[in-house]
From TrEMBL:
Species of the source: Anabas testudineus (Climbing perch)
Lineage per the UniProt record: Eukaryota, Metazoa, Chordata, Craniata, Vertebrata
Keywords for this protein: ATP-binding, Flavoprotein, FMN, Kinase, Metal-binding, Nucleotide-binding, Transferase, Zinc
Cellular component, GO annotation: mitochondrion
Name listed for the protein in its UniProt record: Riboflavin kinase
Co-factor requirement: Zn(2+)
One record GO biological process: FMN biosynthetic process
Gene name of the record: RFK
EC number: 2.7.1.26
Catalyzed reactions per annotation: riboflavin + ATP = FMN + ADP + H(+)
Length: 169
């Protein structure tokens, strides 16, 4: 995929409520304005990379890009599981991510146990791959230290939200 690594940031919105948190694997959903800017060569599936909330620390992440049932599967969704234990939810805050590599396509599973097992193996794969020197370098990228100050206080309307979105690099 020629668009990788892919840098993007935007507001965390409420998702479809499919209970990811109950599975122990919460996924922060990006606002539509971020999803709409995804390059065409970035297909659905599971990705790994780096993520940071507002101006916090940079953590490893796994991201699922899939078809959003809320829009009758006509629109994509981007859901990031940050590999870190947060004390509180961060709805409305700015999430910055760099997608570094691709793990696997979307799949359907016969059981919840099989799904959880697959996600946990995605997380393990992400942890290992991100230790490669070429990937560790991206963690130090200026992108993560240059979160626009206007985006540190959650914007109150969608017009100002879209101005904080930064795609490409
Ligand atoms: P939703 O359907 O609203 O996305 P989830 O059950 O997927 O609900 O929970 C996602 C929310 O959990 C995120 O928007 C964020 O505020 C919070 N959260 C807490 N810890 C994490 C984490 N490690 N990774 C992603 N989101 C997290
Ligand atoms: Mg979610």
């Amino acid at each position: 995929m020629k668009s990788l690594p892919y840098f993007c940031r935007g507001e965390v919105i409420r998702g479809f409520g499919r209970g990811s948190k109950e599975l122990g694997i919460p996924t922060a959903n990006f606002a539509d304005s971020v999803v709409d800017k995804l390059p065409a060569d970035i297909s659905t599936g599971i990705y790994y990379g780096w993520a940071c909330v507002s101006n916090g620390d940079v953590h490893k992440m796994v991201m699922s890009i899939g078809w959003n049932p809320y829009y009758k599967n006509t629109k994509k969704s981007m859901e990031t599981h940050v590999i870190h234990k947060f004390k509180e939810d961060f709805y409305g805050e700015v999430l910055s991510v760099v997608m570094v590599g691709y793990i696997r396509p979307e799949k359907s599973f016969d059981s919840l146990e099989a799904l959880i097992g697959a996600i946990n193996s995605d997380i393990e794969e992400a942890k290992v791959k991100l230790e490669l020197p070429e990937h560790l370098r991206l963690r130090e990228d200026n992108f993560f230290t240059s979160v626009p100050s206007s985006s540190l206080t959650p914007p109150t309307n969608t017009a100002s939200t879209s101005q904080t979105i930064l795609n490409g690099h």
